Structure formats: C-alpha cells, structure tokens
From TrEMBL:
This is ABC3 transporter permease C-terminal domain-containing protein. Keywords: Cell membrane, Membrane, Transmembrane, Transmembrane helix, Transport. The chain crosses the membrane at residues 20-40, 60-81, 112-134, 154-176, 197-218, 230-252, 281-302, 517-539, 573-595, 607-626. Residues 64-178 form the ABC3 transporter permease C-terminal domain. It is found in: Cell membrane.
Amino acid sequence: MTFRQFALNNVRRNMRAYTAYFLSSAFAVMVFFSYAVLIFHPDITESGELGQMTQTGMQAAEYIIFVFSFLFVLYSVSAFLKVRKKEFGILTILGSSRGQLNRMVFLENMMIGLLSVVTGIATGMMLSKLFLLLSAQVLELEKGLPFYLPWRAIGLTGAAFLILFLVISSLTTLLIRNNRVIELLQSASKPKTEPKASILLSLLSAGSLAATCYLLLYQELNNFNLLTSLVLGTIGTYFMYTQLSVHLIRLLKKNRRFFWRGTRLVWLSELSYKVKDNARMFFLVTIITAVACTAVGVVFAFEMTNKQIYQNNSFPFTYSIYNEEQKKEKEALTNARQQIEKTLDLEQVTYESVTVKSALIQFRKTNKPQKAISQSAYNRIAKVMDWKSLKLKDDEAVFFYRPSPLSTEKPDRLSIVTKKGEELPLQIIDQKEQAIFGVSVLVIPDSAFQQADKGSEEVTAAYAVPQWRENETPNDQEVKLGRELEKKLHPQYNPEAVGFLYSSGAQFQMIKELNSVMQLIGMFIAAIFSISTASFLYFRLYTDLKQDQLQYRTISKIGMNLKEMRQAGTVQVGLLFFVPFTVAAIQTVIVLRALQESFAFVNMWQPSLTAIGAFFILQLIYFLVVRSRYLAQLKRVMV
C-alpha cells in the first residue's frame, strides 16, 4: 500500500465525519461559481447601471464567501485533528514520524478539497441555467440571461479554492502538536472534570448583554454606540456560553423537583459538560445565525419601506427649485414645466398641476427647522388632490405628518420666530397622517407665513395623475416617464439642470432593483451560513458519539428503555441545535428594532419573523435528519 492509498483509505474510513464538511465546502464552491457566472455574463456586463450594480454586489459577495469559507475550513480541520489524537498516537507507536503525520493530513485535506472543488463546479454547471433564469426573474430583466460557457468563472473558482485548500492544508502542520504518545492514546478516555466558571466573568456576560440592549434600544444608534454594542454583544455572548451557562445549569440541578424527574437526570447532567466543551462552536453558530437573520430581515424591511414611501408620495412628479426670484431660476422652472407637460401629453396622460412655495421655518425652543407652507398654498394642493380645504385663524396651524411606526414628534403648540425676532404662538388644532410631497409639513396662516423668519425657500411644481392614484406600486408607464424626465431635469444625469426633479415611480424602481440584487446575494450567502452551522453541529455530535454510546449502554443495563433513550437523546440534540438559534433570534429582533428607529423602516416585526421563521424551518429540517441518525447509532448499543 502506498502512502497516498493509505491517506485515501483514511478519508473513506472517516467518511461519516467528513460528509457534512465536504457538502458544506462543495456548496460554498457552487455558490461562488454561480456568482462568478453572473459577474462574467456578457449581458450583465453590457446592461448599464443595473448591470454595474449587480456586478459590484456579486464581487462583494465573492469576497464574503471566500473569507467565510477560509475560516470555516480552518475551524473544521482543527476540530478534526483534535478528534484524531488517539489515531495519531497509534500511528506514532507503529513508527510514523511527525513529518509523515503532517504529510498524511495534508494529503487527506487536499483530497477532500479537490473533490469539493470538482463537485461544486460540476453542480454549479448543471444548475447554471436555472440560476440564470432565477437571476433574470429577480432582477426583472425582460430579455433574460442566456446560457454561455463560463470558462472565466471556472478558472476563477478553481484557482481560488485550490489555493484556499492548499494554504489551509499547509497550515495543518502548525496544528499538530508534539504530544507524548500516552497523552494521545488517553485523550479520548480521560474522565471529564466538573466544569468551572468564574462569577466575575458570568456577571461580565450579563452586564455586557444588558448594556448592549440598552444602547441598541434606548440610545441613538450612532457609529460609537453601534461599535460599542457590537463589541459588548460579542463579549457577552461568548462568556454566556463559557461561564454564565454553567451557573444557570447548576441552579437547575439544585432544584430537585425539576432535576430528579424522568430523563432530565440524564440529559441535564451532561448538559453542563456539553455546553462548556462546545462553547466556541455555540458562539460561532450564534453569531453566524444572527448575522444571516439580520441581513435577511433588513432586505425584507427595505422592500416594505420602499413600497410605503411610494404610497405616501401624493404626486408622481415634482420639480423643486431654490431662489425662484432670480432670472435664471425662473427660466429653469418655466422650461422644466414645459418639458414635463410635453412628455405627459405625448403619452396621453391626464394630469393636474399645482405650484406652491414652501420654506424651512425655525421655531422657538426647537433645534430642528420644520418645512411649512401657507394655508392658501395648501388649499391649492387640496383642490388638485380632492382633499378638504382649511380655514385657519391667525393663531392656528395643522400638522401633516408622514405615516411611520416611529414616534414622530407631534407638538400641540409652537412659537414661530418672526423676521423681527419676536415670537408668534400657534395652536396645533389638528394632526393628520398624510404626507405632502412625501415629508411632514406644517400648514400655517398666510399672515404667519409672511411674518416668519424663513430659512431656505423652495418653489415646487407638483403633478398629480388621477389614474395612478390607487396604484400600490408604479406601473411601467410611470417608471418609464420618470426615468425619461430624470435624465433631462435631474442634476445627477444632466449637469446643466438647475432644479431637482423627483419621480416617485423611478425612485421606487431604483430601490427595488437594488433590493433585488441584495436578495439574490443574501439568499445564497444565508444558505451557506445555514448549512455551515448545521455542519458544525453535526460534527460535534459525531465527536461525542462514542462517549454517548458508552453512557447510554451503561444506563440501559440498569433499566433505561428505548422510549426513554429516544426522549433524552432528542432533548440533547435539540438543545445543541436550538439553544444557539434561540439566542440568535433574540439578538436579531433587538438589532432589527434598533435599525427601525435609526433608518425609519416601516415595520420590522414582519421582516424579523419572516427571517427567523425561514431559518427555523431550515434548522428544524437539519435537526430531524441529524436526530434520526444519532438515535439510530444509540439504539445499536442499547441492551
């Protein structure tokens, strides 16, 4: 038998342990290859702004997948080496040198790595047509994405992952330590000592997690608070598994009514050892799951918020300009109105228009100026939109605020600062959940508007289209006209544009396309994270399987039946899968709630529950598969 055949036989013999690791690696290669197929697709390269956006997003995703794959493979290899200490001890007795052990492990890792790369690329090739169809549908590309031979994608994927496995296989020589043979042989049979934990570190964990919740939920989410909460949350989560969990399990054991009942005596006795032994793995799984759930939740929240913003915009097209008194600005406003109306007339779109003046007005005892319009300006808007007109007294005002789940400040009284520096008190007689021009606006009497010390003044020409008023999302015509007008009248597309044209339909479509790219990227990255966490958990169960078999065989001799074994084993596997998931779900809800406050997302409960629910279903499937295999192995040794 040659040395290579010996390494190959080792891989075959340990295939049950390597299966999850191999499948996770192959899946990461497949997703990396699929993204590369999209990056190098000629139609994506030539599809303008959306194509550039897609390519940029995919390239970022490639970096994320590669870095995560490197860390995942490195962690998996180091974990495999720890389990094989007894095997290394036997080989050392039989005459193997450290160099030969290093060479054997290097060959094994390269065999699995090469097989993962070939399998991943081959699977990606078989599914590439389906992936291109899905990508075209998500990105809403009318012409679709035809199949092509992705030689560059094959070259990039093969080279990247072969280098990855080569580097990690070389690093394994640093992970094999020069232990004495007797230590290697006894590594699997050493009795476990009672887990110890520090009270101070347990308190640090609880305090860090509490401080994280306080910063995210009750403080402004600036860069400092975000970074601080990230650090504290990471520290708190790590010490929760390594320290705090040991004390909590001890408290449960002291409660004899709970502990000395049914199979709890079995699984709870082992729980403190398993949590302590698997603390790093629990920590990694929790962080990975929380990041994936949060990313998916944010993508869903963007989609819902984009739709709500569109529905809150009363006018499909608005053209705004500052310093309307200047000759250049007057001509620009007239020219813009002519272009908008000509475009709408050519498309036979029925519209109504209104031109109003607004201003940012400073109020006494408030730091932020508020956009305001006069009563007469509002009544012209109301006539176009079929709203009820207003008739205000000199000291009255009405506040129209943008619908939002956030706690929008809606004051009862305000004092305007006049041009003379005096105060002009106003009573807010009504507050309506209706945005004007997509933002909150205060409607004040004409006399108050004239007297107010105004900041920047703005003239807005707004166009209402009755036939689009009931649409929940913009139709193709609205998007097309909006983009056409933006190219003529928006400074981003036309440097000579003086004012600013806003198209709610074009804006909605742009954000939707960006979100579609995020969905396409996030969907597969989240899948990689999910499968990798399942791989971690499966491997940990396999690592402890022989010891668990010995324990259950011993207990079965004193009366444990199959039903009790299945119950205790199910709880043990369930805790391994769902404790990190539950912690990650709680962290996801807290983070998404904080993001809602900072980014004015419409509603975070539905995205949160959708993301957590999707990962729960995946986790449940993994749990059922692993549980059935685990219980089958335990059943073999029952007396």
